[in-house]
Amino acid sequence: QVQLVESGGGLVQTGGSLRLSCVASGNILRIGTMGWYRQAPGKQRELVADITSGLIPSYADSVKGRFTISRDNAKNTVYLQMNSLKPEDTAVYYCNANVLTKTWYNYWGQGTQVTVSS
Questions:
Q1: DSSP string, 22-69
Q2: Do residues 99 and 30 touch, judged by C-beta distance below 8 A?
Q3: What are the angstrom distances between the C-alpha of 106 and each of 31, 32, 97?
Q4: Which of 30, 48, 84, 102 is 20 to 30 A from residue 41's alpha carbon, by CA?
Q5: What is the rounded CA–CA span in Å between residue 9 and residue 3?
């Protein structure tokens, strides 16, 4: 069994910053791509950013230049540094990872709320 546990969400004013963390634990042999998704009320879940095991990142256009994804493979941890936050960034943020145990499987965290006040 694999668990992804997020932390770092909260309430911040427009223009502020937050850093999200997600730690993967369990019977892990390898972790492939890790990423962050978000879901705002009444909207579909969308990809915010992801990063390969080789540390190659990609970003949604809406967050380019403001968010930075990184990971520490030794700690099975992925981070999302969010700067210049806007009210439209308000959402529940979910960690996602492709993990090899006996087979490759895609896992989700429980989500962490990010609220940006105007």
A1: EEEEES-SEEEEEEEEEE-TTS--EEEEEE-TT--EEE-TTTTTTEEE
A2: yes
A3: 10, 10, 6
A4: 84
A5: 18
114/92 Cα distance (integer angstroms) = 6
Give the whole-angstrom CA distance, residue 30 versus residue 45.
26
Angle at 64 between CA 40 and CA 105, to 5 degrees: 60
- Quick: pLDDT tens for 55-107: 999 999 999 999 999 999 999 999 999 999 999 999 999 999 999 999 999 99
**Distance, CA of 26 to chain centre:** 19
Cα dist from 83 to 34, 54, 86, 115, whole Å: 20, 24, 9, 13
CB 58 within 8 A of CB 76: no
pLDDT value of position 45: 98
What is the average per-residue pLDDT within 114-118?
96
